[in-house]
Specification:
By secondary structure, the protein is mostly helical. It has helices at residues 23-34, 38-42, 47-67, 73-92, 98-110, 114-129, 137-159, 164-184, 186-191, 199-203, 212-216, 221-244, 252-271, 284-296. The chain has 2 domains: 1-130, Farnesyl Diphosphate Synthase (Orthogonal Bundle), CATH 1.10.600.10; 131-297, Farnesyl Diphosphate Synthase, CATH 1.10.600.10. It is globular and about 55 Å long. InterPro entries: Isoprenoid_synthase_dom_sf, SQ_synth_HpnD-like, Squ/phyt_synthse, Trans_IPPS_bact-type, Trans_IPPS_HH.
């Protein structure tokens, strides 16, 4: 899932939400309000699959907002536990929250895996328990699998892609996108007391500290930054191989997101480290060109 910071206006208490919108309209408004790059890919899908992706995105957006919110750890845990109950109710056929009501048809039609919804929540629990600072490699891989790979696996079901290659793609591309987000958001995450860079990369450059701002200002962090970019490059290369092996158009949304984030990674590498604290982004014209090149043609 993309790590955006836009606040949500609606309550996340998970009691029966009061809204005049249909569940489908409710989730679509969340997607549109977030302004995510993912919306371009979603619009490539037929209506039923597009609505499924809107529901998946809205679910991820809401649990991510809890993890990034100002509440105490206990309050965040309680809200995430309430979302676990919402997942259980969805798979019992009795969803109450409009997001889960919007997901009901997709759950039935596209066999959305319950385990991956719960994995997303597990990933948000990792963020909510304490500020992540230079996780060991095992925890870093687990975190990416939960917050990104799980979203990818839900998405390929919504896309209609099947098979081992599609499943590997979901996890590999999810990690590539997540590492790109981490590289893009280094300063922003540091201001929140977080540092998602794997500890082994820091140690191999002689950086023992885990304080985010101290690490980012260390003279050797330039090499750490380059090493993490190289990891993302390898993942993008593998994802392109897997897409090339797949026939048909079901993975066209995945290909579009791959190219958008691949271009963003190139921008991160071109900018280098250190850079100022402004978030690195793609211009709207660049995104439109990528939509035309990989989405519509």
């Amino acid at each position: 899932m993309e790590k955006q910071r836009a606040p949500m206006a609606e309550s996340l208490e998970l009691q029966q939400a009061i809204t005049r919108d249909t569940p489908e309209t409710y989730v679509r408004k969340i997607v549109e309000k977030a302004g995510s790059s993912f919306i371009w890919a979603m619009r490539l899908l037929p209506p039923s699959r597009r609505h499924a992706m809107y529901g998946i995105y809205a679910f991820c957006r809401c649990v991510d907002d809890i993890a990034d919110g100002p509440e105490t750890e206990a309050q965040k845990h309680a809200k995430l536990e309430a979302w676990r109950e919402e997942v259980e109710q969805l798979f019992a056929g009795t969803p109450k929250h409009p997001i889960m009501q919007a997901l009901q048809p997709a759950k039935d039609s596209f066999n959305l895996p319950k385990a991956e919804f719960l994995a997303v929540i597990d990933g948000m629990e990792m963020d909510a328990r304490a500020s992540i600072r230079a996780p060991v490699r095992e925890d870093f891989t687990l975190y990416c699998r939960r917050v990104a790979g799980a979203v990818g696996l839900l998405s390929i079901h919504a896309f209609g892609a099947r098979g081992p290659a599609a499943e590997e793609l979901a996890v590999v591309q999810g990690e590539a996108l997540q590492i790109t987000n981490i590289l893009r958001d280094l300063w922003e995450d540091a201001a929140r007391g977080r540092l998602y860079v794997p500890r082994d990369l820091l140690k191999q450059e002689g950086i023992e500290d885990t304080d985010p701002l101290t690490v980012l200002k260390h003279p050797n962090f330039t090499r750490v930054h380059a090493a993490l970019c190289a990891e993302a490059d390898r993942l993008f290369s593998r994802a392109r191989e897997l897409i090339a092996q797949s026939a048909g158009s079901s993975l066209r949304p995945a290909r579009l997101m791959l190219e958008v984030y691949g271009r963003l990674l190139e921008r991160v590498k071109e900018t280098g480290w250190p850079h100022d604290e402004n978030r690195i982004t793609l211009r709207r014209a660049e995104k439109l060109w990528l939509v035309l090149r990989y989405g519509l043609i």
